[in-house]
């Protein structure tokens, strides 16, 4: 349906007419309200997917349909039409045409339209509708039916005879199923001021948005140009196919973009693909274009609607909306118009009752919304819920108002309006408000009472009265909105033609219909300039407007017009000739530069001399005064000023009356510049500021013209564009601004002023006081056990303020928390912190303090650790003396402290002197030291000091002097434990044996093998002061034998024998014989090999082979110890050969001895009688077959104790030391394998020496063996302490060592 106004504007609204008996007033009322004021809070009827259709009634008029039945207009539509009538200019009623575009009908009636004539004033006529059919050919040549038009004329209810009319023609329809729309034509003349800014374009209200949401901005994501081809809207008949194509250029894309197809707002079609919907994607590599297609196959009615294609790639986004229209197949040319008004979704309307989903949703719980939407096929559930939330609640019947205000009122500007409410209770107090402010009675606002009616009259309405009004009665309130419509401004009295002469004053006058109106003056169609320097002036007196030309000239001849919003008026001026005497200038005005305070004299001579004139300064007329004289004597005109001021500078003009010519000159007043520092009130022009604060120094200056100001610091010019430091000059003062003062800002600042009159300079000193710089890192020269001594230097910069003192802080190096050591300032530059923990590293730092504050902390000092020296070494004794050396040994100090022990210094002096000589320049960590380079026969004293980080301890001195003379010590060979037994190695391996010995002076060492000296070419021997090394790079069996080592010191000799055995693979057995063959068994016998490889034979390996093949040998048994065996489980019928390998510790022999004869296994029928045997009782009590032997061990080298026991059942083995069971001691490891019991002692010390016992226990008895273990080469006291040996055991060990040494 389309509604056309008289002036041709329209608003399109879908969904007005629903069927032949009902129509939808929601869209019409919403469109009208949006046209009147898009942002006005007029309540709208809710719009949902199931719009409420009002039944027709006969209250408000009638309308006749195509079949002659009477159609009725409901009250809502009448209210909308009333709102349209209020929008007409001057409040005049307007005739409206309602044209309903529907499907063509078979009736051949023509539509009725208005002919532009005034209707007869016979009273209001009912609305009539006439249906006509019209056929027009279309472009493709086929004949289709043009939509018919139904014209409706509405006569204005007002009694005014002036009625405006207009027509609107229907737009061309696409087909017979065109969607019905309503358009409302609105006036298109010049809008008044109150309506400017309103939207005059078409307002379209679709199915998915409520009317009140039309003007709200829609939040769309930012679009980009991804789509190079967008899908276009299309139509398809039911059952046909259609394809929508979208293309994306992939030239700048690294991967394929994501494309989604939607129907409506949020239905994703990716999950709906199937028989009727298919999505396809292709990519053309040459053009690099992605093509996305959506195929709809065999379209149905419900496929129609709005679709959307969205393309996303990373942060880019693009979308396109398009529509799909599904048409029904036309069965005949004549289509029932009723079917066009029926909703397609109600095809079975007669059988199925209509369901009001809106009411169901309002009464349902929120968790049931999705279920209801799915049940009734609602796709736009989100939009439906959003509109339901905005829907105004049903208002309860008011208890205070019997009749409330209308939603909106409209009045012309300057008119009067009455706002009327009717009270249910006349005694209730009533208050009126305008935009929330209470209205008081005034001549403009008049309040009236008529019974229960309360009336507010607003007189002389203006644009300020365009507002929201409310009335409060008790606790209830009703509101309305008043729209003030401005009327066009009309020209009541036009401009009259004017004739004048040159140099005359002209006034053009016109009169408009309203005061305060804006008009525009034009000359020859061009707007007249009315600025300050213009010859034209305008003035306004009430409704009269004037254009004034003070001094007319021939150039002012032309056509003048005035324009207002209601019309224009023109006036013509006629050329006039005027004869005047020409003006001659004998002496013109001269430009002058005058010093401030000096007199000014301007004069000129003109002809004729009797012509008066006027003096102007900068365009302003000059009047005579006490200090200013204007003199006219004949041809001379003078202007004199006694004392010049700055205001006297400017352009002076003398204008003779009656002439357009004028004389002018320029007066320039100058004043030397000056800096007024006395206003600062700073002593010696010195400004003191604290660093970090903002400094703004404003200094008054004077001078004319305004002097050029330059700020300088040294040779650097301070600019006004600086960030932190900048200078500014404005008016009569200049300023220096330092945003954040710093130390570098200290100094003298020079101000230089220059202008035409001279130059002036001044200087200002700026002093920036600050906290002092942090001192340098303090020094810690002396460190004690719990104290230290620290010194530091004062800071290099004291902040321009004397240093008052210092704060000291300290912290542990690993900590981050500093602790203040003094709360009173320290004046000196030294300090001694105390009460520190020994062994903990500390750091200290310093703060300097002046009158401004505390400086930043200094850098921490180097980390220092309070340490104390150790106690003196203990038990200093002489260990060895030679002709040139003395060896002493001692024990570590009893008290070492947190500083630890770095080593020892050994000093000596000749007996009878105090000249101590340092023997070792570098500290030694050992507790034994040999002093060399001594004179034989001299006596010396020796002392030892312990050294750590804190320094040297008190010395430990020998009680008696030592005679430097060597003492003979008998030799002693200490054979290692593993060399006390036979030392076995394989052929080809390396032999490297170290045999330690002792003796003084250096012993003589000799080696003998089987009575002959050892050949150096076969065996390498190297001797030192304390050991002898025998080395064989590649051992051979010839190296086997017993080696005798002899150590000799003078007449003392000690010997030791070392047995070396070099072993090799054995030879094969000498003879292998088949002794007997019976059944599946063969008895073999062989003799041991001739060459055992210099090692005992540990076993034999027997193999067999079938005579048929003799290729593959099979092992029958390995590691067999005897020289005879019976091979069983042989295969009957086979003939076997056998061979035997011998084996020793090096492995199997390289060759095997084979039987000369073969053994044939023959099947026999004899049965062997197995004799009966009695089981032997193998149980026996424990018995040691190999006892423990006394062993000597070297301290620091692992030692093992071995024995073997036989018992059945297996016995429990217990090891004991000094009759104490060894249990869970990590220094011991115990093994038991095949009756061999082993105890391993890890790195024994002399403390580990003693009696060891091995006890075996089972059910039949027990047995034990014992041995003595002696550990030689013990540890020092310090080493035993490091190993964690208890002090009482260390003392016991030391005493035993003394006894052993004394025995020796």
Give a written overview of the molecule.
It is a single chain. With 1304 residues, this protein is mainly β. Helices cover 6% and strands 42% of the residues. The chain is built from eight helices and 98 strands. The strands form 24 sheets. Strands 41, 43, 44, 47, 48, 50, 53 and 54 form an eight-stranded mixed sheet that branches. Strands 65, 66, 68, 69, 70 and 71 form a six-stranded antiparallel sheet that branches. Helix 1 (25-36) packs parallel to helix 2. The chain is elongated. Mean pLDDT is 78; it is low at 1-23, 29-76, 78-223, 332-353 and 571-580.
Alpha plus pi helix count: 8
Distance between the termini: 137 Å
| SSE class | mainly beta
Which regions contain 5 or more consecutive residues with pLDDT less than 50?
1-23, 29-76, 78-223, 332-353, 571-580
- Beta-strand residue percentage: 35-45%
Q: What helical percentage do the residues reach?
A: under 10%
Quaternary state of this entry equals single chain
Gyration radius from CA atoms, angstroms: 64 Å
How many strands, which pairing sense, and closed or not: the largest β-sheet?
8 strands, mixed
How many strands appear in the DSSP assignment? Answer: 98
Q: Globular, elongated, flat, extended or rod-shaped: what is the shape? A: elongated
Rounded average pLDDT: 78
